[in-house]
Design goal:
It is a single chain. By secondary structure, this protein is an alpha/beta fold. The chain has ten helices and nine strands. Helix 7 packs across helix 8 and helix 9 packs antiparallel against helix 10. The chain is globular. It binds adenosine monophosphate. The site of adenosine monophosphate (AMP) has 17 residues, from helix 2 and strand 5.
Length: 280
């Protein structure tokens, strides 16, 4: 396995690869959620490239860029265990040689970013799309693997690929959860014991919604009320019902509905996201 920290060498090594290339973009602190993407990529491609890069331009100044968990040695070992061909772990200056305020960015349209995570994180998806586009160009990936955990990100990346005719197939991978249903996230490392207990109520509320929907409850106000009760003690930023294909808001729940939640836990003030399809 090659461990590469610069663009020049990455381009050279990519040229030498024979067969298909699968890319798994990550910010590192790899857990079983990331590993599920990497395992699928190794099953479906001749070569797998994993990028480990905490992308500064997708963080607002008030966010957790500096304290975001970093464990490069462990990540490299985990990739090695999975048979990854290249781990690309660049320094910021390799990715953004120009001054940060003076970059050409890919900015998804207002109607897809002015909701859910995009609303409270202005510029976040510009940063995501821009880095993902660079990684597509650098790795020449045939397939790229993204988790449904970041559902709005997945939707926006798929749209970018369609809108800009990138020659890459986006593979959507299911959410990996702890046995008690907490969605795996690198940010779970921030959680205190109390926070973790409270955080469980996010998935509890979502799974309960799915149950209520299968029992015939379709009124969104009713579904939100019950969910907010379950998530009492959390600072819920949003609970929204969208069409899983268009991300347009729903007026009532149906089989195409995806419910998304963002909430902060009180002690560590960690912001967590999760989502569920009401029917699949
Ligand atoms: P991140 O390192 O948080 O940027 O995540 C890198 C990729 O892993 C993204 O496509 C995420 O959606 C995906 N991912 C993160 N957590 C999970 C999870 N629990 N289950 C499935 N995919 C995940």
């Amino acid at each position: 396995m090659k461990i590469i920290d610069n663009v020049k060498e990455l381009k050279e090594e990519i040229k030498k690869l024979k067969g298909s290339i699968g890319l798994v973009p990550t910010m590192g602190a790899l857990h079983d959620g990331h590993l599920s993407l990497i395992k699928r990529a190794t099953r479906e491609n001749d070569n797998v490239v994993v990028s480990v890069f905490v992308n500064p331009i997708q963080f607002a100044p008030s966010e957790d860029l500096d304290k975001y968990p970093r464990q490069p040695e462990k990540d490299i070992q985990l990739c090695k265990n999975e048979g990854v061909k290249i781990v690309f772990i660049p320094k910021i200056s390799e990715m953004y040689s120009d001054d940060k305020g003076n970059l050409t960015l890919i900015c998804p349209p207002y109607n897809v970013v002015d909701k859910l995570c995009g609303k409270s994180r202005p510029g976040h998806f510009d940063g995501v799309c821009s880095v993902v586009a660079k990684l597509f160009n650098l790795t020449k990936a045939n397939k790229a693997y993204f988790g449904q955990k970041d559902a709005q990100q997945l939707f926006i990346v798929k749209k970018m690929v369609r809108d800009l005719n990138f020659d890459v197939q986006i593979v959507s991978c299911p959410i990996i959860r702890e046995p008690d249903n907490l969605a795996l996230s690198s940010r779970n490392k921030y959680l205190t014991q109390n926070d973790r207990k409270l955080a469980l109520n996010i998935s509890k509320a979502l799974f309960n919604l799915k149950k209520l929907f299968t029992q015939g409850v379709v009124d969104i106000r009713d579904l939100v009320d019950v969910s907010l009760k379950i998530m009492d003690g959390l600072d819920v930023e949003y609970i929204e019902f969208v069409d899983k294909n268009t991300f347009n808001f729903k007026t009532k729940a149906d089989r195409d509905t995806l419910v998304l939640v963002a909430a902060r836990v009180p002690e560590s003030n960690t912001r967590l996201i999760d989502n569920i399809k009401l029917w699949e």
